[in-house]
Amino acid sequence: MESPYYLTTPIYYANDVPHIGHAYTTIAADAIARYQRLNGRDVFLLTGTDEHGVNIERVAASQGVSAREHVDRIARQFDALWSRLDISYDRFIRTTESAHHRAVLALWQRLQASGDLYRATYAGAYCARCEAYYQPDELDRGLCPVHALACDTVAEQNWFFRLSRYQDALERLVRDTDFVRPTSRRNEVLAVIRDGLRDFSVSRRQVRWGVPVPEGTDEVIYVWVDALANYLTGVGYPDDSATFERYWPADLHLVGKEIIRFHCLYWPALLLSAGLPLPRQVFAHGWLTKDGKKISKTTGNTIDPSALAAEFGSDAVRYYLLRATPFGQDGDYTRAGFLRLYNAELANAFGNLVQRATVLAHRHAGALSAEGAACGPELELCAEAEKLDSRVTAAFETLALHEAVAAVGEFVTAANRYLQVTAPWQLAGTGDARRLGVVLRHTLQAARLAARWYAPIIPRAAAEASRRLGVTRVEVGPPLFPRYSC
Ligand SMILES: [Zn+2]
């Protein structure tokens, strides 16, 4: 059996409907999953929703529904978006599942057994939107540094986790391995560690909607401990040890940069305490802005991924998000930029290549079997093809997703240039069937290769292109990417 590859998106907080940031992470995860499957790996892609916490209770109450009704509705909306964006997840986990409840308790018991939980009083700021405690120096003019909203002031007896005990182990992990990527995030995490890690509260009073602590102290387990444990539950912990041992530790946790503290400090520390193996890597991607401004529901500066997919197709959305911004950096969305990339690279380049290859092969089907020798232009194209394989592989292995897309795009350009140089439409007129046969076969091969490597990025169009470029029978169809006027 092929070697396993386990990757995860964060589970998305079910306080509100999905937005473009969720789509970005999930599309990237899906592209990586599809690439690894193409490589023969036994892939497990986990996504889902984070459904507990004080903020969920508040939002549900403000809408006059129960927390359960609220999270059911939100989970359905996430799932519908993933289906619209062709996300090939293997499991959609919800933290309100009983299997997850058991996993959280199993993890908690391990933390207790290692002596890392103790009682203490917490007093300070708590952002309900982040579900995170903040030290006074972490606040931005008294407000949550992520949401710029006022925090709750909390003072209560809680269970605390001895994060400080893992200070040295975490520093070594982050400094000496590829655990945190990209480098900018690693440096950020290292700076937090070197500042000194403080124990943190892992239970909450005043919240009902969560997993109750088993000690009966009338608290629920802190929602981030609950949420992080989903990566264990997703592959069978604690009930299905065969699946768990097959897929754990995760190869990759993809996250947005706002949650690196939880994934790069809390999570490995909890696992070390629990005596469970650590995931191999956490990769934090950047944030998107729209028209140079922060995306914000309050100002109405948003991008609806579902509406965009309805207008241009899921492939167009996937392509734009993976192509426009170097993966790991911040990016900016503009509609003009979206249309420009779409027309130039999907409609005019790839779509056009597939169209020309199928139309020519169909029109001159008789020449396809004519024997002939490859010349200069073919050798050049074959050299480009070889370069493509190694470039795409290297790009995906280092999660330079934009670079993988660019590599295929450059190959498509080379294939279109090959058609210009060899001009098969003229060869047909000269009656040189041997030469025409060589050119058509190379064109078809090049288009098939582009479709193969585009499959993780634009799976719908790539599958349709591969079908039309079939080895036994070539089929002509409507443009894969109709052009749009800007
Ligand atoms: Zn916040």
Describe the protein.
The chain is α/β, with parallel strands linked by helices and 486 residues long. It has a domain at 334-468: Isoleucyl-tRNA Synthetase, Domain 1, CATH 1.10.730.10. It contains 18 helices and 15 strands. It has a six-stranded parallel β-sheet, sandwiched between helices. It has a four-stranded antiparallel β-sheet with strand order 5-4-6-8, with no helix packed on it. A three-stranded mixed β-sheet has the order 14-13-15. The radius of gyration is 26 Å and the shape is elongated. The two termini are 49 Å apart. The model has no long low-confidence stretch (mean pLDDT 95). The structure holds zinc ion. Zinc ion is lined by residues 127, 129-130, 144, 146-147. The site of zinc ion has 6 residues, from loops.
Structure, briefly:
The protein is α/β, with parallel strands linked by helices. The chain is built from 18 helices and 15 strands. It has a domain of 135 residues: Isoleucyl-tRNA Synthetase, Domain 1, CATH 1.10.730.10.
Q: Any idea what the shape is?
A: elongated
In CATH terms, the superfamily of the domain at 334-468 is: Isoleucyl-tRNA Synthetase, Domain 1
SS-based structural class? alpha/beta
Largest sheet: 6 strands, parallel
> How much is the average pLDDT?
95
